[in-house]
Structure formats: structure tokens, C-alpha cells
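Many introductory courses stop at the sequence. We go one step further.
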Amino acid sequence: AELTCHGFEVIHPFKMNQAIRARIPIRIKNIQNPDGDGTAIFPDVMSRNEFLHGASMTKLFTENGYYSDMMRRHPIAVTIKNNIIVQNIHSHRKIMSHGFFASIFAVLDKYELSWI
């Protein structure tokens, strides 16, 4: 409830991008129907049947660095907000990193764009 008061929704776009790239399936549950199936979001490479029945969960966890119960972390809250753009910027390394970042922030400043 606290998150929705601040305009957040279900999952942050950056975190969704990370989950997709790591091939981590996500299940979003409805708080008004917690016993229901909710909405399943799973990678294209994983079949719906595998995800829904957990057949490949052990392999998925192992491939993504989760080897024991102690390493399995569960999110406390995952949110999303409309009208946010996530940019992944990579340097070609021909200039020093401080110069590269300075040029990026100069463009953001020029167009009065907020960044986090």
C-alpha cells in the first residue's frame, strides 16, 4: 500500500530488463486474489509448461548463481512507474571514463532530463 501511495505499480522496468536478460521467470500475484495463479511472465526460451510446473527451476537457479537456500533472495517489493526510459549506455573505451560520463551528463543537462 505504501508503494502505491507514491505512484509505483508492480515491477521496475530496469529490474524487468535484468530478469529477462537472466532468463528469470516472474509471477505477479493479485493482492485481492492471493490464492489465484496471477500473471506469469517467462522467457521465450522457457516453455510455459516448464515454468508453470517448475520442471526447470533447479536448473534456472543454478545457472543464475543460486546454489543453496542461503543464496536465494526474495524481493520485498518490486515496482514500476509510467513514462520512465531505461538507457543502457556502453563506452567504446576510446576516451577515459570521466570524459565519457561528462559528455553523457552534459547532454542530460542540456535537455533538462532527470536521472537517477
